[in-house]
Amino acid sequence: MKKNSYDNIAKQIDIQDFLDSVEESFQDIEDPRLKRNQEFSLSQLLLIILCATIAGANSITAIRQYTHFKLDMFKKLLGISHAPCYMVFWWLLTRLHPKPLQKAFFNWVSKLPKEFIEKCIAIDGKHLNGLIGDNRCHLVA
Questions:
Q1: What's the total number of domains in the chain?
Q2: Residue 124 belongs to a domain
Q3: Virtual torsion, Cα 135, 89, 27, 10, nearest 10 deg
Q4: DSSP 8-state secondary structure symbol assigned to residue 42
Q5: Domain range spanning residue 91?
């Protein structure tokens, strides 16, 4: 029987250090959700969204699909029992302020070990023109 690839990854990195680095870097992000709607912690959701986006998810539907596809990984990594529904992602992503999130992401990446940074995937972004006022849309590729 073939060993689970997640077990191989776990041997290469300290999972708790990884989770702590995400929690520490994103701790200043203000959670826009009501207390009663926080079945999943903000850091759990941000980690899921981060993983899905790096894997190519470019919509809330794609993030939800990725989460269901990788549910076994997230169960082991985050200790969750089930995947968040579409509305959990929608509610969070439509209310998060992008500038603090961007700052936290760059802070997190800057603290990654050098050997991981050398293997990082390049992410490019730009503002889409034609939108009114401060409602600019940012495209990430």
A1: 1
A2: no
A3: -130
A4: H
A5: 9-30+37-112
